[in-house]
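Fill-in record for C1q domain-containing protein.
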Amino acid sequence: MTRDLCGCSLAKNAVFIGIKAYINTNGIYGVSNGAYLHLVRGDTVQLVECSPSNWFESWSSFSGVLIKSD
């Protein structure tokens, strides 16, 4: 299976916010990206427009952390 240019986009409340993370797995096996978002109660953050899940390696992950509460 060829794994090339797999990735996802970041969305806030299901709207793409302009951040994409791609990886070319033909020799480059790591990528990271980061973003700071202002969220209010009820907002959601998700990965959208992702490559098929079988293109990702088993260690792929997505996480977030609250830095400050309003």
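KEY FINDING: The mean pLDDT is 76.
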